[in-house]
UniProtKB/TrEMBL annotation, chain A:
InterPro entries tied to this protein: DUF5687
Membrane-spanning segments: 27-51, 66-88, 109-134, 140-159, 166-185, 205-224, 274-291, 297-319, 345-364, 370-394, 414-435, 441-459
This protein's name: ABC-2 type transport system permease protein
Species the sequence originates in: Flavobacterium phragmitis
Keyword tags: Membrane, Transmembrane, Transmembrane helix
Any Pfam family: DUF5687
Classification of source organism: Bacteria, Pseudomonadati, Bacteroidota, Flavobacteriia, Flavobacteriales
Domain of life (superkingdom): Bacteria
UniProtKB/TrEMBL annotation, chain B:
Keyword entries, A-Z: ATP-binding, Nucleotide-binding, Transport
Pfam families noted in UniProt: ABC_tran
Source organism per UniProt: Flavobacterium quisquiliarum
Domain ABC transporter: 2-230
SUPFAM superfamilies: P-loop containing nucleoside triphosphate hydrolases
Protein name: ABC transporter ATP-binding protein
A GO molecular-function descriptor: ATP binding
Domain of life: Bacteria
Keyword NADP on entry: no
Amino acid sequence: MIKKFIYLEWKAFIRSASFGKNLAMKIIIGFFMIYFSLIFIGMGVGAFYVLKDMKLEPLVTVNKFLIYYFLFDLIIRLLMQSIPVLNIKPLLVLPFKKLTIVHFSLGKTALSFFNWIHALFFIPFSVVLILNGYDVVEIVFWHLGIMAMIYINNFLNIILSNIDKLFVVFAGIVLALGGAHYYKIFDITLFTTPFFQSFYDIDGVFLIPILVLAGLYVFTFKYFKKNLYLDAGLSVKHDIASTENLTWLNQFGTLGTFLKNDIKLIKRNKRSKTTIFMSVLFLFYGFIFFGNSHQPAVMHIFAGIFVSGGFLFVFGQFVPSWDSSYYQLLMTQNVPYRGYITSKWWLIVIATFVSTILASFYIFYGWEVYLTIVAGAIYNIGVNSHLVLLGGAFTKTPIDLSNAGGAFGDKKAFNVNAMLLTLPKIVLPLLLYWLGLHFGSKPIGLSLVAGAGVLGFIFKEKVFSLIEKRYKMEKYSTISAYKQKN
Amino acid sequence: MIQVNQLLKKYNGTTVLNIESLEIPKGQSFGLVGNNGAGKTTFFSLLLDLIQPSNGKILNQNIQVNTSENWKSFTGSFLDESFLIGYLTPEEYFYFIGDLRNQNKADVDALLAQHEEFFNGEILNNKKYLRDLSKGNQKKVGIIATLIGNPEVVILDEPFANLDPTTVSRLKKIIKDLADNPNVTVLVSSHDLQHTVEVCDRIVALNKGEIVKDIQTSKETLQELELFFAV
């Protein structure tokens, strides 16, 4: 019976829309998978030596931060890891035992990207520890304990995913703990470090998370089995709708019509809502670069682009796929392409503008840093906004709006197109800035970047005509691509 | 009104639609019947420029549909649920279409009031998004939305499917009313011979992409069609 399930899963995997029929695409996907895997493995191997270099005991240090690691992992899961409920329905009336269905769908989550990605870090890290004279058996125990913790998160996510907006609570907890830790009010790691450390130090402690995991599995199993009915666990939650007229947008004519629709699009769908969350995350990206002497100065512009460009990258990237489910409708209405594109452009511009204002806390690092962000924002508005819209004509992956998972990692929406299109948007300003920095000074570099943005803005109408033409050319293939959803 | 010339659609060498010539005069109510795969939806998709013809052309009021987009302002259509915007409420959807067709809120409201009976109290003010409506109710929304802005050409693909008996008879009345208007050309496709015969002046049967019957509706039409499709 299990063989049948595996057969179905394999088909689902190789036939998923974005897996692509195109060989070149598959190769690129493979390349990126390997690349990211290598990064994680590299981190696993490197962590030991880096920490050693910093005169820290590697295992203790890792244990110290594990609590944050796990909490953060849980937040990411709540946001992105989807629950395998939907494809259970067709199996219910077939001669499968319910037990098998539940076991299988729970077992399936164990193989999720969100689980094995951790192995890529922890396994090399454990191996390096062993090579450096740590006790083999104890390390294996520690490792098992950690893996159990990761799977506890996996099942917690399944149980908790029915509760909306829970990730906000966890994000709040992380922020509170982190803040309290930073300001030395309360240090959670004082309690958790010894616990994680005892997986290694004391025989048998690692059994605690494994037992908890077993208990959690039994609980989830029972919960799922009890709810394996169309009007219980398998029911789709319906939102209570409220009609919003947003009449203040009427003054903008067709543009207003589209803006109204886009605002509702973002507000009412899980997937698009996460883009807002992601854009907020991007705001803090600069902390990695500014005030960090390890990073080369040229990378500042990199941060400058990303801080204000979060929305541009996570939302703009997927225009017009956001409208994929009703693209045919738009094509039969009296819709000028330009109005449609302009509305998306304005949305991006407004978001970039707001992000730039919100990012004003970077002034704390000095005006120069903030000016870098402003220059990045100008470049985003002038050049990148056009590039994402142009790229949109080629991004033909339909978006399932109701599905929150997928922005990253979820195998069904791992979109390499999007990543490839990101590169020119960053490399060009990086180059301009570097030139300015190399042959002149920082202000020259910044004005080169901003100048490119202004230039793009001046040629906006021209570029829009070009984009419009592209969209028209791609019309039929886009329609047919959007029809092929799962 | 609508002229079809040497229209041909092929997928990988297989012909799915081949119409030598077809003319639908203004004001006619035109019914398209045929089995699955006969080419009904393909024809409508070509008419709406959603797919490209392999050869030939379609003129909608003398506008070639795949070269100019001006037909869009007087053509209303509903092919399937992918014409609905799932995250809107029915009202918002109607106003959205209204905006695109230059109708203000009052115009749309007037049209909706006219069709209140058709909605049967299940559509408006129901605090539901379109994606959460049943298939039948979604269809009701889609059909009425095609009427916004007084289109001169109305295209409905399988409008009777998924509707309850009461709604079907109400829909027939709506289509008949449209057909009575000499300025409106109605194109309807269906598997259901009886419904189509009831509402259409003229019936064209497609089989494997070709026109096999073209009849003006009369008392004998239903029998003739039933005989034709019987095995």
